[in-house]
Design goal:
This protein folds into three domains: 269 residues, Tachylectin-2, Chain A, CATH 2.115.10; 78 residues, Immunoglobulin-like (Sandwich), CATH 2.60.40; 102 residues, 60s Ribosomal Protein L30, Chain: A (2-Layer Sandwich). It is 12% helix and 40% strand. It contains four helices and 32 strands. It has a four-stranded antiparallel β-sheet, with helices on one face. A four-stranded antiparallel β-sheet has the order 2-3-4-5, with no helix packed on it.
Amino acid sequence: MAKNNLRYILSLTVIAVACCFCNGGNAQRDEWLKAQTLVRLPSSVRNLSVVDGRLYCYSGGLLLSATMTAGTISSLAADAEYYQYDSDIDYVTKNPHTGHVFFTTVGSKGKHKLYEVIPREGRSPKIRRVRIDGVSSVDHPTFSRDGKVMLFSSPEGDYGGFDIYYSRLMDDESWTDALTMGASVNSSGNEMSPSVCGDYMFYSSLDTSYSHARRLCASLIYGSSASVESPSIGVGNNPTFDLPLPFNSEADDIEIAFDTVAGRIFIASERDGEPQIYVYDGSMPVVVVSGRVTDITDAEASNVDVSLFDNGSLLCRTKTNSEGRYLMVAPQNRSLTLWMSKPGNFGSSKEISTAPRDVYHAIPELVFDARLDRLEMGKAFYIYDVFGGDASIDISQQGRQSLQRMIRFLSENPQIKASIGVTSSMSNDQYFNDLVTSQRVKNLQQYLGEQLPNSKVEVYVEGNSYTGNAQGAFSSRLKVQLD
């Protein structure tokens, strides 16, 4: 599993694509994500974790364990196994390095104490208090994939509210002083509930300067090499992403947990108006789609809208971070449209295939970089061959795709006027050539009017011949000028 880096995270983000195709709607919640509607939680849910294949959560003052049936949570009940250690237990996790269970208890003032369960042959396990100097409370601890780094949240935030810290395991089995994850992760709000999967730490953030709902984020804590065994964390500039909009709803999305053995991912969310647990069972193979967006000077293009479309239907949407990087998930073996846009720039549209290139990984990564060109008003650009073959006057499917860049740009900028001159390459019959060109103008004007009802688009006959295109008679050229 150590080499699955991005792969499992993005099994996770599949929930995103499944959650609700954009804008927080619920109608498209298909087979990817299943709401556990039969499980009624007594109150808000938190502290999701998976230990030895069993899901745990804390709700209504109780640590609950889940029973799974056919990939669905069939019941939640107070856990008897861990309550033998302490009646105030509210969270359990396991260190993959030592195999020891760790748990926290919550006191009357909301402070959390951390304990380690140390097995002893022929005797009851030893319960050892674990202290992390520098903080008075250790909430929701989790471990790096090699188990030698603990990540947790604590209310002693250097940046305000709850912040996320880490501590390294020493040779004597003690833990170093708490170190902050830095400003790339922490904000003046609350960062909580860290969870590690692959190369990434996932966590929830409530930064009121950015959003009034908790949102789920991911931060790269390992280097680009999958062989790295110690996270390069705490340096303050870890690449950090908001998970795509279908994953982050308009309501509170509280936290996630991973069952890497069964290939399930759990999310606690209030997107349907009350706290529920949602599960992705891995039934739909996916790929990670990521990359870097630059501007015309090759500088990082931040805050770029990045969207994936399947035959015109939005799958998911996100924005590039401060380094111009984005990260999404898509179903495998599809032909999709990757669209990127930012005010003041032409969008970038690319047809991509999500057929896996690397069959070694269960969840492969596909990288698609892009460059945005700045808009130059009054300067013409050209679009070729949007109509069908021979003397067709109908816009072809390929032609519709070629027009999407311009259509989306004009849709996002309705104040801009577009003048489009249509030219067809010369045939042997001048009259017939003019007739074809005129009808193409009418059909294009009608099509753009339907696609852009609020935009100012004029289509006209610019000429009946041009040279330089090898497609032969009746191939078309559109001269587009924006004002």
